[in-house]
User: Fold this.
Amino acid sequence: MTAKPFLTLGIETSCDETAAAVIAGGTRILSNIVTSQVDLHQRFGGVVPEIAARKHIEAIFPVIDKALKDAGAAAADIDLIAVTHGPGLIGALLVGLQAAKALAFALGKPLIGINHVEGHIYANVLAHPGLEPPFVCLTASGGHTDLLYVPEFGRYELLGRTRDDAAGEAFDKIARVLGLPYPGGPQISRLAETGDREAISFPRGLSGEDTFDFSFSGLKTFALYYINNARQSGEEINLPDFAASFQWAIVDVLATRLIRAAQFKKTRQVVLSGGVSANQSLRREVAALAEPLGISVYFPPLDLCTDNAAMIASAGYFKHQAGCSHSWDLNAVPNLRLI
Assistant:
């Protein structure tokens, strides 16, 4: 008789995606449902926290029901419930957390809270089930830019992080100033495809320092001055060239420091995670730098780069296997740090 697979229900509501997923054995996706609010927030040029929380309330249980249905599972079949409890928007986080607590209590199942940044790392475990530490991971998104050494799953050494803006945040802010739709990162990436990345010499933050940290505020300020000066003088901005040059200023720094960190830690594996890992220019540059050094590069498929619950369920499974669980006093922590 075949043993029943261990099923984890993951729930993710840290920002503007309401997501639920069912994972078998920590690595096999049975369902992965994401309801996005992008169209709703586009008119505001970014996520409005109160609106996001209200929409999560409307969507959370229909999304969970669909995840169970698509997985061919009943609620009683679930063995573990994993939920994002930070970092993120406090109102949004609370919706998912309270839903997870209610289900865990009603079903008598264990509950585990997951750090959203850690969840992004496990998107690579889902995409590459044979992936094993040690490796260096770059997690880059709208809220985070962290460079981590992972000697084993569940253990992390911070090598560097942004001192100000996250990489995705810089993309979104400049896109908004240019009048591009939200979210701005993909819009800039599309424009950059036909542009000249050497057309404008944008600064690289912390370029003179021996550090693995990042800084994108100076780049953002330079870009703002460039846009304002062009508008005041009546000059037309070549958007593809601007986008390509701006994107290259971010990609160059991210890729270079990631590979340098791998050499520093003497590891032959690097991992990309988070929304910015979907950027094709970043993927190409990391691969180009890694190949001559014999470093393997891993990144998730596009649907696992952005926020989703499959990655939360996977992280929850492996943490549960390591003996971790949480009690009913688990709370949402909007500024939760992995390290």
